[in-house]
Amino acid sequence: MALPCSFSVALVLLSCHSLCCLACHLPDTHGLRNWRVLTLLGQMRRLSAGSCVNYTNDFAFPKELFDGQRLQEAQALSVVHGMTQNVFHLFCMNMSSAPWNMTLLEELCSGLSEQLDDLEACPLQEARLAETPLMHEDSTLRTYFQRISLYLQDKNHSPCAWEMVRAEIGRSFFSSAFLQERIRWKKSDQVQHGNDSL
Predict the structure, then answer these.
(1) Could you tell me the pTM of the whole model?
(2) SS3 (DSSP) at 121
(3) For the chain, where are the alpha helices, taking DSSP H only?
(4) What's 128-165 look like in SS3?
(5) Are 186 and 73 in contact (CB under 8 A)?
(6) CA angle 22, 25, 28 (to 5 degrees)
(7) Quick one: 108 exposed, middle or buried, by C-beta within 10 A (0-12, 13-18, 19+)?
(8) CA distance 181 to 9
(9) What contacts 82, CB < 8 A, 6 or more positions away?
(10) Which residues does 91 contact at the CB level (< 8 Å), separation at least 6?
(11) pLDDT per position in the chain (198 positions), as tens?
């Protein structure tokens, strides 16, 4: 399946930069895993959107949580971690009901697990835990994924329902990955301006 040009360019950007964002110094492979997860989600497509027109649904993705302009580093880390963790649970704890190619699904779950390891090893995670819990962000993400889970249950985990969810998660995970890049760029600009003032 050919990816739209703008989407392909964004994937290249995600894969080419070392994600030392979030003051975490995440390994170079973290950015590549973001790209790989998005690619796998695309490869897992089994049905065309036209064949599932009666299954379309607005899951009300909370775009405001992924606004890199207003989030502090610790908040961004919390949102990215929460997103990755929920995607892992959605796909990797429902393997028996999912219609996917198992090789692709297992690779997806392995990549998400490695991303979680990277994020949880980040020193900033400890700082986040010492702060006031981000109740709004956590609750909003939890509600979003609850809507998705209830939708799957209501549709009896049918192939078309899973296809709608796969497409939705592809879009939302892209927002999460792009948030990491925006924070990295923001921090890079701050460092550059600091050097220019010396």
Answers:
(1) 0.77
(2) coil
(3) 5-16, 28-43, 73-92, 102-120, 123-130, 135-154, 159-196
(4) HHHCCCCHHHHHHHHHHHHHHHHHHHHCCCCHHHHHHH
(5) no
(6) 115
(7) buried
(8) 13
(9) 137, 138, 141
(10) 98, 105, 108, 109, 112, 169
(11) 444 544 444 443 443 343 344 456 666 666 678 889 999 999 999 888 788 988 999 999 998 888 766 666 677 778 888 999 999 999 998 777 778 999 999 999 999 999 898 888 776 555 454 454 556 677 889 999 999 999 999 999 999 999 999 999 999 999 888 887 776 666 555 545 555 545
Instruction: Provide the phi-psi class of 189: left if phi over 0, else alpha when psi is between -120 and 50, else beta.
Output: alpha
Q: Which two tokens stand for residue 33?
A: 């895993």
Of 112, 113, 121, the residue nearest 26 (C-alpha):
121
Tokens of 192: 């550059």
